[in-house]
Structure formats: C-alpha cells, structure tokens
Amino acid sequence: MCNFATIFVKITQNQEICIGRRPKTHKKNYMTKKFLFVAMALIAGANVFAGGLLTNTNQSVHFLRNPARNASTEIDAVYTNPAGLTFLTNGLHLSVTSQSAFQTRTITSTFAPFAYGNSGNATKEFKGTASAPVIPSFQLAYKNDDWVFSTSFAITGGGGKAVFNQGLASFESSVAVLPASLNAKGINTTAYSVDAYMEGRQYIFGWQLNSSYKINENLSAALGLRLNIVNNKYIGHLHNIMINPAHPTLNPTSGMMKAADFFTNAAAAATAAASSMAAIETAGYGSLTLSQLVQANVITAAQLTQLSQGLGTDLSNVSATNVKTQYNTQAATNTAYANLVSDKNLNSTQSGWGVTPILSLNYHVQNLNLAARYEFRSALNVQNKTTVDDTGLYADGVNTPHDIPALLSLGAELDLCKNWKLSAGYHHFFDSDAQMANNRQQYINGGINEYLLGTEYKLTDRLLLSAGGQITRTGVTDDYQTDMSFSLNSYSIGFGGAFNITSDLRLNLAYFFTNYSNWTKESASYNGTGIAGKDVYSRTNKVFGIGIDYKF
Predict the structure, then answer these.
(1) How far apart are CA 548 and CA 343, in angstroms?
(2) Tens digits of pLDDT across the chain (552 residues)
(3) CA distance linking residue 176 with residue 157, whole number of Å
(4) What is the pTM of this model?
(5) Are 508 and 498 within 8 A, CB to CB?
(6) Handedness of CA 36, 39, 41, 44 (dihedral sign)
C-alpha cells in the first residue's frame, strides 16, 4: 500500500488544490482565468505613439517638431485639419515621413511570495520593450481653386512590438503562491521558478480620403472617411513551472521539480489507492468499512491510517467502495491541476476593420486661424485566428470589441509677425463610449484630454525652427490599470526644423519624447490571490522623425 501524505495547497480564497484530499467546491477556476495569459490582447501591441488609448496623433514629422498642429494649413493638415487644406497653392502636394519610435514599460511589483523566486526580495521588476524602427506615412493633396481632394496613409493605432522576456507579475504571482501554500500545509517548499515570455504586436492601418471646400474667404469645410484595418499578433508561453517540495514519496530529494510532475505523481498515488479498494471490492468486500476490513485482516491498521491521511479524514467507518470513489475523484482532480501547471503556449492573430467619418471646419481672419475636427467612433470587432492556444482564451474565430473612440480636436494658430507663429490645440478622446474587451470602458471617466502648445520661427527664408509640448491627462481609474494595459498622465516635448532644399522641396527633422508620471496601484488581493500586493507602472517614450514635403 502506498504512503499517502496530505498535501493541501490553497491557491486562492475560493479554490484549493488537493493532493491526497478531496477538494472543496470551487467557486471559480482561477488558474485558467488569471494565471495563463489573461487579456494578453490588451497589452501586447504597446502604443509607441502620442495620442489616446487606440489613436495615434503623430502621423507626420510635422507633429514631432511641433505637436500643436490642430489648425495647420500645410500638407500635414490632410490629417490634422482637412478643412485648412484650402490654403495650399493650386497643384499637387506630397509629404512622406518615416518615424522611429522606442518605448519601455516597467512594472515594479511588490508581492511577498515573490521572495521565494527572487532571492528573498519581495519586489520584482518586469520590463518590456516596444520598438518600431520604421513607421512610414504619407499625405497627398490636390488643390484646384476652392476644392481640395486629399488622401493619407499612416499607422493610426498601435504601431510596435512589445516584448516581456520575463512575463508579467499577473502571470508569476499565481506561481509564486505555491511555496507558501505548501508550507502552510506542512510541505516545506522554499523556491519556485518559471520561464515566462510575452510578445505582442498591434497595428491599426489607416487610409483616409477627404474632400475640402472653401465656402468663402474666411470659412472652409471638409468631409472625410478613414478605413481602419486592424492587425494584431500575440505569441507567449509559460514553461517549466518548478517547485521544491520536501515530500518523502513525491519528491524525496527535495530538489526542484516540475509542478506538473508533482501533481501527476500525486494523481498516480491516488489512482493506486483507488485500485487497491477496487480489488477489495472485486473480492466481495466493497460494502465493508475500513475498520471491518482491518478486523478481517484484509488491510492493516497502518494502511487504514495511510488511507485516512491521504484524504485528510477518518475513514474507519467508510466503506471500501466509497473510499474508491473518493480517491478516483481526487486522482482526476490532481490530473486536472497537473494539466493547468504544464507548459502553455499561445500563437494568435486578430484582424478586423471599421470606418471613421470625419468632419472638419476652418475659420481664418487676418492673422488668426481657427480649426475644429470631429472623428466619429469607429465600431469594429477583431476576430481571432489561432494556431496554438493552450490557455483556452483565444478560441479560433471568436470576435472581440475593439472600437476606436470618437475624437474632438480644436486648434488655433496666430501669426505674431511674418516669421513667428504661435499655435495651440486640444484633444478629447471619448474612450468611455468605445466598446472594449471585457467592457473595460466602464473604468474610464470620460476619456483622455490633451493640451498642446507650440511655436515656429523662420530664421531665414530657407530654415525654420519649431518646438512644442503636449500635456496628457488620462481618464482611467485604478480598476482599468493592469500590468498588461495601463494609461499614465504625461507631458511630451517635440522640437526640430525644416529646411527648404529648393523652392518646392523641404526636409523635416524632429525629435519627440514623453515623460510619464508613475501610477501606484495597491490591492488587498493581488491578482486574486488573497494576499496584498502593489504595482508601480512607469513608461518611457522617444520618437525620431524625418520627412520631405514636395510641391509638384
């Protein structure tokens, strides 16, 4: 008869993993819903641009050298102010831009169980990098007297690949509780380890068409449509979840072993106990209690003790058939948990499309230009195309809400003199009205607000210098923030210049960076573990840009 010691592992307040004991009723399946790649789609394609949660506003190099372009009357107005294109000269105008964007995301997590896998330190840093070395865009406009027809292409959302080589705290926290849980049940465990990796890419390609008309000397209007095509890809894994439980039969060396093997061995032990009871049942003693079996010399008193320890209850007055059933149930439970902590892989892409209607007005009087633009909400879903999904969260063919929020843009430009211009702008993203996965929009108070200010000065007829800034105030709440997707208050500064190579050809160069305010989120039940924890979210961002404007 095998030695069945009780191992009773509490993973959450509502769920217990049992090795050698009947499990309590589970209120939720924590390990499949929180442990393995939860909501990976929300993190993965880190937005390496300026703008809202799903909207990029830096669609040309002009923005990088002066973010306050809301009232532009130059070629970049194809995106920023289509109605202002009526100030172009007659003919064909082209602007081509290439940007290089680099971002880091750092989550500094404090959670007591991390100490088991982090050299005794309860605070661990999870760092992800997002890069997009080449981000192309172009804007094209043709003006003929009062009419302008224009088009543009840009990465209007997402735009980079985010990589977390050590996974995230929301993954690891569920592994980290294993040693403490085993220790609480008398199974000395001092360490854990896990190989976690996440990589995500998110792009929203935007193709825009506008028609602009000069109503009178002061007022212009434009109508436009943008086709948004979503292309996301997520790759990740959780491999080699290891623990070192000191157990005389399941891990006699007390060395590091796969958690999946630990539960598999426990399931085998439970199966062996059930088989021994099945043999007794076949022999015609199934209705006898274990005490009666001891009296009949079918089993020994020591074996009765071992069987009782295995289920954590006195089995003296329980029939052999009933004991068999309980151990079969436990074997199935342990097998299920072995599967949960086994290697997991994910490879999934998402695609979808939607259309954004755009209205634009421009009013010009003397040396002042005013502009307003409204982009309607783009209702769209993305559909999974999944080749590998051990998580059960990205079933092939399933659709997820992925709306692009409405945007209100206001701007003004003031010519102080012939060579000096001031500009200002405002953005409001209606994020709380856009449908998101898992209804996360309910955790946003209105949306993001941005305030922009800039200036341009012509040093000579050929050389122009410009600079500007942007203040972003996010509308998200604590409930919105996760290590997989978070939004921070920030300020951005951009500067650069433009050089007229010829009368028709201009070179633009710029640098743009963003400083983010850290966000601290404390939780009494960190990632649903029932143990207190804290995350500090931070981010860095920098963008380089080069482009040319050409008048044919």
Answers:
(1) 50
(2) 333 233 222 222 223 333 443 333 333 333 333 333 333 333 333 444 455 566 788 899 999 999 999 999 999 999 999 999 999 999 999 999 999 999 999 999 999 999 999 999 999 999 988 888 889 999 999 999 999 999 999 998 876 778 888 888 888 998 899 898 878 877 899 999 999 988 888 889 999 999 999 999 999 999 999 999 999 998 989 999 999 998 888 899 999 999 999 989 989 999 999 999 999 999 999 999 999 999 999 999 999 998 998 887 899 999 999 999 999 998 998 898 898 889 999 999 999 999 999 999 999 999 999 999 999 999 999 999 999 988 777 889 999 898 999 999 999 999 999 999 999 999 999 998 888 888 888 888 889 999 999 999 999 999 999 999 999 999 898 999 988 788 999 999 999 999 999 999 999 999 999 999 999 999 999 998 999 999 999 999 999 999 999 999
(3) 35
(4) 0.82
(5) yes
(6) negative
Residue 69 burial class via C-beta count within 10 angstroms: exposed 0-12, middle 13-18, buried 19 and up: buried
Rounded CA separation 91/479 (Å): 52
Q: Which fold has domain 32-122+133-242+341-551?
A: Porin (2.40.160)
User: Strands (DSSP E) along 482-529, which ranges?
Assistant: 490-500, 505-516, 519-523
Main-chain phi, psi angles of 188, to 5 degrees = -60, 120
What letter would DSSP give residue 347? E
Nearest to 495 by CA among 523, 517, 475, 466: 466
Given a contact cutoff of 8 angstroms between Cβ atoms, the answer to whether 321 and 349 are in contact is: no
Q: Are 222 and 398 in contact (CB under 8 A)?
A: no
Identify the burial level of 460 via C-beta atoms within 10 angstroms of its C-beta, where 0-12 means exposed, 13-18 middle and 19 or more buried: exposed
The C-alpha atoms of residue 361 and residue 359 are separated, in whole angstroms, by 7
Length of the chain: 552
Centroid of chain to Cα 146: 46
